[in-house]
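User: Here's a chain of 134 residues. Predict its fold as tokens.
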Amino acid sequence: MVAAMFTRKAVAPYGPRISQIAEELLDAAMVRGRCDIIDDFAGQLTVATIALLLGIPVEDVERLRQLTRQSQDYVLAIRLGKEPTVEARSANNALLTFMRAGPSPGMRWGCSFLRLAGLPDYNLSGSLRSGGPR
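Assistant: Prediction complete.
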């Protein structure tokens, strides 16, 4: 279901902006003189594209990327039946707070994503707290 959000047709209107972001990421790598293809390009471009689809402001994309990456430790710990570290728990709580903020009053980012994906609205924060669907 979510894959429908990322078809060529669905993403086409964002093509020029995605290309611009890709060029900016590559330019930054050239300035640094190095590029980790995942951390410096693919990961950032993926999060930026998702943010565009959700309408998340450009200035919040880096924060979302960092929170998503940091909260992975929380989800992994829960899935392995371990106690998450304080840092992982804090990152997950920060991600939940970000997702609850939303684009407008009464509309959370998580719900925005679910509607765009054509998925039923479910308790996103509860899912993140429990390590996601099993």
